[in-house]
């Protein structure tokens, strides 16, 4: 009996762990992967584009979409005072294209994808909190110190929860991008994803 290929994978990690960069590289190396775009109430940053990086919405519009069933799971990220959630129209369209969909989400999103789409979940764990702190500061030097510290504390909590809630935990350190990507690809191959 032929098994259907797995169609959804979650690649998660604390802010600054590189989960979206790993996803971008995965899609470049393996064109059968695509990333689902989440909805958020935060404002766009820099060159971010609506429908490409996120679906940017007002809080009113966001909760209207929740009521309409288009955002089946969401979370408030207190450090950013913004809601993030799975945007079902985008996910459905990407699944209909026949590609394997990657979701970058938090633990509640990972649980949603696991329950509803039999997703395999991968958590990227920084080898040290110090390197995570440095990455956050380097990525956005204008970020207030209080926000950096809040994100680091959130990351510590996420890391503690990850151990028992994700299928795979992949470690990453400074200057280990390629090795980490290889580990992620190996996990996906082992789980039966077509890469």
Biggest sheet descriptor: 5 strands, parallel
Strand content: 15-25%
CATH architecture of the domain at 8-36 and 89-190: 3-Layer(aba) Sandwich
- Low-confidence stretches at least 5 residues in length (pLDDT < 50)? none
Radius of gyration: 16 Å
Count the strands? 9
Secondary-structure-based class equals alpha/beta
- How do the SSEs run, as a string of H and E? EHEEEHEEHEHEHHEH
Kindly report how far apart the N and C termini lie: 21 Å
CATH homologous superfamily of the domain at 8-36 and 89-190 - what is it?
P-loop containing nucleotide triphosphate hydrolases
Count the DSSP helices: 7
Descriptive notes:
This protein has a domain at 8-36 and 89-190: Rossmann fold. It has helices spanning 19-29, 59-67, 88-96, 107-117, 129-139, 145-165, 177-190, and strands at residues 8-12, 33-35, 39-40, 55-56, 74-77, 82-85, 100-103, 120-126, 168-172. The longest helix is centred in the last third of the chain and has 21 residues, at 145-165. The chain is an alpha/beta fold and 195 residues long. α5 (129-139) crosses α6 (145-165). A hairpin with a 4-residue loop joins β5 and β6.
């Amino acid at each position: 009996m032929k098994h259907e290929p797995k169609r959804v994978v979650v690649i998660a990690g604390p802010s600054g762990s590189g989960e979206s960069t790993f996803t971008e590289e995965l899609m470049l190396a393996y064109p059968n992967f695509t990333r689902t775009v989440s909805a958020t109430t935060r404002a766009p940053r820099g060159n971010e584009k609506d429908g490409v990086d996120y679906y940017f919405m007002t809080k009113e519009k966001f909760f209207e979409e929740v009521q309409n069933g288009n955002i089946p799971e969401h979370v408030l990220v207190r450090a950013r005072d913004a809601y993030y959630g799975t945007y079902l129209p985008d996910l459905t369209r990407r699944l209909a294209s026949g590609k394997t969909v990657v979701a970058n989400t938090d633990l509640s999103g990972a649980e949603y994808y696991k329950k509803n789409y039999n997703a395999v979940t991968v958590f990227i764990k920084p080898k040290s909190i110090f390197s995570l702190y440095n990455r956050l500061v380097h990525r956005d030097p204008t970020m207030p110190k209080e926000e950096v510290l809040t994100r680091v504390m959130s990351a510590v909590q996420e890391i503690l929860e990850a151990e028992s809630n994700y299928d795979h935990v992949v470690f990453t350190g400074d200057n280990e991008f390629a090795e980490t990507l290889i580990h992620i690809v190996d996990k996906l191959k082992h789980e039966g994803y077509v890469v």
